[in-house]
Amino acid sequence: MADGSTNETTGEREWVTPPPSFVDAANVTAADSEAFLDAGWPACWKRAAELLDWHRTFDSVLDDEETVRWYPGGRLNASYNCLDRHLDERGDEPAVTWEGKLGETRTYSYRELFDEVNAFAAALRDLGVGEGDVVTLYMPMVPELPVAMLACARIGAPHSVVFAGFSADALATRLAGANSECLVTCDGYYRRGDALDLESTADNARLSVDHAVEQVVVERLGDDRSFDDDHVYADLVDEHAGTEVDPVERDAGDLLFLIYTSGTTGEPTLVRHETGGYLAYVTWTSHAVLDLGPGDTHWCSADVGWITGHSYAVYGPLALGATTVLYEGTPDHPQKDRLWKIIERNEVDVFYTAPTSIRAFRKWGEEHLERHDLSSLRLLGTVGEPIDETTWHWYREHVGGGECPVVDTWWQTETGGIVLSTLPGVDRMRPGAVGRCLPGLEAAVVDDAGERVPVGEPGRLVLTRPWPGMARSLCEATDWGDHRTTTVDSAERSRGDSESSPPSGVDVSRDTGDRSSGRDPREDGEWRYDTGDNAVRDADGYLRLLGRADDVLNVSGHRLSTTEIEFAIVGVDGVAEAAVVGGKDAVTGARVHAFVSLESNVAGDEALRERVRAAVESGIGPIAVPDVVTFAPSLPKTRSGKVVRRYLEAIANGEDLGDTSALRNPEVVGELTSLLDR
Ligand code: PRX
Predict the structure, then answer these.
(1) In this structure, what are the phi and psi dihedrals at residue 493, rounded to the nearest 5 degrees?
(2) Residue 443 in domain
(3) Tell me, what CATH number does 584's domain have?
């Protein structure tokens, strides 16, 4: 049957097969994948660690006696693995190639990157940064960002990168939370045609932190401002030019970095990644899924401020000796063919981006691509949100020349690297489905009671075996049962819950959809990590992701906590209550829709709407600003007083509300619907 057509018997989309030319040359072949599994679990994960150079070999792959410890006894340095070990063989090859917003380009060979990282590492030490001290990097997409990350890694100082789009308040929370006494930032950066000031925001953040924070400023705008007590990055690098700093040997379990993400609380969630497990995992997945190696040019278009940029724009490709492309600007500036120009000029082999961007490219039209030679591409990837079949096919056809395999990769900040995906040299692709777990991992789809649901039934996606890239909080569970989750958020908050219980009389298949049929890791209780996502598995074990089951929105592939946004809104004078939900958006995946009820005698006018938006902008940043603010007479609530978001979501999306009689105030639903209709 032709690729991409529908099988009339099963109703399933048909397979798309990777071209033989790709399969023959792939880093991981079917035989490699078999051999990986044959090694058994957890021994198979030795293979990932073997892609790295260790100062001291680990005593075992996994110690799970009390907590989960990957590669215990092993000692290594991430900067050494991304730089030093490449110098002899590929010192002159490009490591980072950067495209600036104004059209300028800069390329660092591995040798040049090594030199600058060493100089900056020496400078950080002189500023008093020692092993274990957290350095915050509040920087846009400039090459000094990976330099600073690797300089921190070199001296054993965990970095905490804060996305440059976050506000002063958000930066202050992160500086204080990590007790970070050193901040590296930029005077500013360019976004579309505008120069944005970053340093003033950083200054404001420092003012609201209790402890002193030393600041280094990269001059990106070069607008002749004076830096008073701050240190200028270029001066520091000049002063320390030629200095070599021995890479500090770190225990596999020592922290490489911290990163904040959005969870279900009002506060940002701190995620910590360890040196050995994380680096081995991102290097392995860059090798196996993104098919990278020396000589390859890889472009992961995610901002380095997010986990995707950490794993697949910096650590993974550099550990493998590939070239990584960084781009400062936006895809449509100055013209809508900017990305294709970059791919053509840099002869990019592997392009990894988010479905939201692909939907925008599609909307802009093929003519922007057709003017460029994209034949260097051999693999495409997507990450961050589900990709629908039409967009998948468009991507493969128009960007990938109808030939490139497309890997739809599912993972999270907490997983460190890709967890669900096809292996491009091994597996057939099924557009719209991510595929199975990578070898060495196991997933299950479960119902509210934690029981596996049958094929075709939606439920909560849980991971049932530890993997090396897992965040420290997951490792720290002292008991394998700690992560067993039976508390799938009850009743009204869970979108999938009404659909997830197996219908009676159906044979409940317990097939997990994994590659191995291996035993559960522990006989007497299965280890579980609840991903917070809903998924459904088809008869071939391929998983489709159905979105978040909790109160986390995914806007343009960025994770936003509804609670965090609500906290910012209720701080506005005159606001009584707020509930934020995701409205569906054809391009960005979700729109932030805020329903705001006001104190009596307060008028819901445009000025107040602006104050609501401004509060979110200053509390979190422009990415979280509500697209729609609806002033509500009140919010729909259960008899016990809980806001029922399900109805608000349906109202925001113009969907059928179903039975509202269980509400304490069902009339408000009608009022809100008619408010939005107007
Ligand atoms: O809901 C899933 C969605 O993004 C969430 C993780 O967000 P974050 O930690 O910011 O990491 C983003 C980059 C890995 C997940 O819980 N998600 C990620 N990849 C996919 C996805 N949803 C569907 N398909 C994907 N390929």
Answers:
(1) -80, -25
(2) no
(3) 3.30.300.30
The DSSP line for 70-113 is ESTT-EE-HHHHHTGGGHHHHTTSEEEEEE-TTS-EEEEEHHHH
Q: For residue 378, is it within any domain?
A: no
- For residue 661, being part of any structural domain is answered with yes
Q: Are 83 and 121 in contact (CB under 8 A)?
A: no
Please name the amino acid found at residue 62: L
Domain of 559 in residue numbering reads as 551-677
pTM exceeds 0.85 for this model: yes
Token pair, residue 536, equals 């459904």
Say yes or no to pLDDT of 171 above 80: yes
Asked if pLDDT for residue 535 goes beyond 70, the answer is: yes
pLDDT digits (tens, 9 = 90+) for 55-105: 999 999 999 887 899 999 999 999 999 999 999 999 999 999 999 988 899
The Å distance, Cα 146 to ligand 1 centre, comes to 23
Please say whether the beta carbons of 557 and 625 come within 8 A. Answer: no
Residues lining ligand 1, Cβ inside 6 A: 261, 307-308, 383-386, 408-413, 434, 531-533, 545, 548, 554, 559
Q: Is residue 654 assigned to a domain? A: yes
Mean of the per-residue pLDDT values of the chain: 89
| Count of structural domains, the chain | 1
Measured in angstroms, how far is the CA atom of residue 244 from the centroid of ligand 1?
Answer: 39
CA of 381 to the centre of ligand 1 (A): 13
Q: How confident is the model at residue 676 (pLDDT cuts 50, 70, 90)?
A: confident
